[in-house]
Design goal:
Blueprint (H helix, E strand, L loop, with lengths): L23 H6 L7 E6 L2 E7 L3 H21 L3 E3 L4 E5 L2 E4 L3 E4 L13 E2 L4 E5 L6 H13 L4 E6 L4 E6 L2 E7 L3 E2 L10 E2 H5 L2
Parallel strand pairs: 4-7, 8-9
Antiparallel strand pairs: 1-2, 3-6, 4-5, 6-8, 9-10, 10-11, 12-13
Amino acid sequence: MEDATTPTRLRPVRYGERPRSMTLEEYAESDEPADGYRYELVRGQMVAQEPAPGAPHGRSQNRLVWRLNNWMEAFGQGEVFAQVGFIVSDNPATVREPDAAVLLKRRPWKGEPGNWIRGAPDVAIEILSPSNRPGEMREKTSDYFSAGALRVWIVDPKTRTVTIRRADGPETVFQEGDRLEDPEVLPGFALEVEDVFGG
């Protein structure tokens, strides 16, 4: 059950009232509130995801993006992003913003609402924060796979594990002492799990 003090929508909705869905264009033109929360457009509603992340989250994000960028420069033809919007559904309008994302081939975004990228990234990376709920992560994972993602990585600073979920198969959990790799999707990429989290 959600904490009643945690904001979930930008505008309060009265009992029995159905909130009006936003379009992608309306979301692109809207201002996010300065309340310290990150927002995504989920099924037409602007939803608070989590407070501003702390240092462990930022450290893991920076390390992964840096190492993935190095891999992309050596082996790939795409791009690596940190916290960029991806249009995973037009109806209902949904824009997800993974902590990091890998595109195996470059995609145009000019002319898209918000300059977001259409479709899911090939690899979507979500770094867990204390406020994340299991149901929320399942919903995000489902959205990514429905929109074409090949992999979703769940990075957990608390347990110091990285779980790779596949669209068409079982997940794999990597822990300290393991080498994080997925040669089917990222050939040549390898990273010691402890290097994701640092000291």
